[in-house]
Amino acid sequence: MVYAPREDGYINIKSMDFPDKEYFHLSHDLEYIPGFWGSYIRGAVHALQEDYVLKVGLNAIVSGKLPIGGLSSSAAVTTAYLMALCDVNDIEFTKYDLIKYSHWVETEFIGLKNGILDQSANILSLDNQLMVMDCQEWEHEMVPKGEGFPDFEVVVVYSGITKNLMGTDFNNLVDEVRVAGWMLQELAGLPLSKLEDVRLREIPKEVYETHKENLLPRFRKRAAHFYTEQERVEKGAEAWAKGDLEAFGQLMFESGHSSFYQQESGIPEMETIYNILKDTEGVYGARPSGAGYRGALIGLVNPDFKEHIKAQIDAIYPSKHPEYKDVYEVNFCQTDDGARFVDPKEFE
Q1: Which residues, at least 6 apart from 113, have a Cβ–Cβ distance to it below 8 Å?
Q2: Considering the entire predicted model, what is its pTM?
């Protein structure tokens, strides 16, 4: 995003990836429009206006290099808007402030029942380090790569499907996880929380192990995904710190399998990509990115096998899903630091 201040208080945003533009005055009380990319700048303005009086607007152009769908593009662009608005209005902020405001946009303005992981990864990340985030306590640590860590790149395989999460079963799935916790509380004789306050992490794993067979299958799967994913996160951090990319990659594959078959948040197109990557030489590990209802899979790969990996995907995916043969993409990327201001001269 490139931007310049407007002293007249107007917001004028042009996207290189979507038609139309967003144009309004900071004094206007604008609502969320489902499916409209301009809703995120509207939400960013509303979030900051909860605590500040905004007087300076923006002229800005936004664009992205990677496909939009499953890669936290909404969190990324919202962060950019927030940083720009704070800059031109002389508002000092911390990284955790950005996470808070960005999360407010998605939960209070857009209406998603999601957490802070997308925003945290986008804002806190450091190149070549693994971020481990405690999303309830709002604490994180950065884990450096262990000694002897092999070279790797990130593969991003876009399915060709871009869908707004509000148009999926995402919020219902969140409620199913909470109902699973509710059932465990009841089975264990624990005090029952309000549904919106249920957190599986506050229910000991021993309670789950004792009572899991008494859960209805749907809710047993949701709880199983949560508790096994918690273990994978801890083991993953240990593998990263030891420089064991093979073990880390295997945990990614296991996470993907659980996402598809325990959390049941995947779609057939993404499952196809997952299976291709799982069976292709040179892929350390892969899993669906985002909520799993659309978008992309990400994986860590040996750079020497990039051509082979792309060839495998090109040979299988379009034949199984011909309706997306002209829109799916295979991208290879490297890691980098999180959201930051950059001198425009670096791009000259």
Answers
A1: 107, 170, 171, 174, 175
A2: 0.88
